Amino acid sequence: MFLTTSNGFGPLDYFIWDLKPVAEVDWLINADRELVELWGKGLETEPAISEADYFNPENMQSATHMRVEYMRSCLMISDWGDAGFLALNPAVQHNGEWEAWHFATWHPGAERYHSFAELMMDTLQVYRELKQEG
Q: What SS3 state is found at 11?
């Protein structure tokens, strides 16, 4: 609902500069096929994260506990900011909300959140902490 109401928004923080307007939101495979294919190559050599590990609440913000195979179905909702972007994962839902991802080149994968709202609350908290340190 937020994305359709705001129709783009930003900057969000120092790293994610904006959410895309609704007309520009696209599946990650269309927006950045090269990234999806590059990450997909690891599927042949690395075992998938187990269901228990993937859905363990303690692993949500651990970027090492993502499933690369979900990248093909993610919806890219932000532009690349400072080497990262936001996406929604319809393959995993929590209370009817799509899982949200913060993917960045400085992570070994994606930080995952139960919902877009949870991701936005965390983004706001991190932004406030960075402003206080600066």
A: coil
